[in-house]
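Morning. Coffee machine broken again, so started the prediction first thing and wrote up yesterday's gels while waiting. Chain of 235 residues, entered below exactly as on the submission form.
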Amino acid sequence: MLLLVLGANNKTFAQTKEQVAEISTSVPELAGFHTIIYPMWHKAYPAKDIATLKSFVPQIKANMEKINSAKLPGILRERESQWKDQLVKFNAVAETYYKASAGNDTTAILSAAEQFHKTYEAMNRVVKPFIPEMDTYHATLYVIYHKSLPAKDYTAIAAVMDKFISEADAITKYPEDKITKRLKDKAPKFYTVSKELYTATVALKEVLNGKDVKLKDAAIEKAHSTYQKLESVFE
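Came back before lunch.
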């Protein structure tokens, strides 16, 4: 068993390795491409080393086979359709890479390498499209929404609230220059919704002190829907 501390109240919950993996946003089959992407994009591509770019084909084919069979962890269930859509594009780009590598058109192989790198980055944005602070908050939200709420285990939810509120607060304090660089004119909306998320999280803790189950469930739904609203800012 693996012990995972979920709250600031010194309450410790035992979780299996499978449960811990379920709240991880890591997809090993996608991460496996990094051993190809790094030398491709940072060495072979800028050097216009066509022979090396062509040599990646067997590795790419092997990794594409793995990623086409990959299963997303539970925490990414809401991004399943996005993953499948992007995977179709990734396969198409890989086929273009194979075709270009079979010929001797330097421009074509360089273009294929550029598109392969671009699509790989897009795949990564599906599983980790947001800021680290949001991923941390989402990991806690996932346990609350998909585990504790269905089990009506409000005691478990109450035990993680101080941590949950701290995670929400961290999102509101994300550096403005970094958000502006990424979201540009949507940066103000990010801060507006992140404050709504913080307010909804604090409100959840307050409601959990009462006995009205409907109010508790509604407060959890509010935190969940507000988080989804914050995700949509990045779309």
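Residues 130-232 form one domain. Going to sketch it on the whiteboard this afternoon.
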